[in-house]
């Protein structure tokens, strides 16, 4: 069974944020989630 865009988005963002050299500002995380999800959606089209 394929993963949904939402599941893939969660995995990608979690992996990115788990990088110890990344220190994102809290207010930027929602934008990161939106951008990753939008990019995955574009790949389907």
Give an overview of the whole structure.
The chain has 45 residues and is mainly α. The chain has one domain (5-44). It is built from two helices and no strands. Helix 1 (5-17) crosses helix 2 (29-44). The mean pLDDT is 92.
Can you describe this structure in just a few lines?
This protein has 45 residues and is mostly helical.
Topology of this structure?
Blueprint lengths: L4 H13 L11 H16 L1
GO biological process, one term: regulation of DNA-templated transcription
Pfam family, one: ROS_MUCR
GO molecular function, one term: zinc ion binding
- What proportion of the residues is helical, as a percent range? 55-70%
Low-confidence stretches: none
The geometry reads as globular
Count of DSSP strands: 0
Strand count, sense and barrel status of the largest sheet are: none
Structural class designation = mainly alpha
**Taking Cα atoms only, what radius of gyration do you get, to the nearest Å?**
11 Å
- Helices and strands, in order, run as HH
In terms of DSSP E residues, the strand content is: under 5%
Tally of discrete structural domains: 1
The N- to C-terminal Cα distance equals 20 Å
Mean pLDDT: 92
**Count the helices. How many?**
2
Organism: Lactococcus lactis subsp. lactis (Streptococcus lactis)
Pfam families: ROS_MUCR
InterPro entries: ROS_MUCR
GO molecular function: DNA binding; zinc ion binding
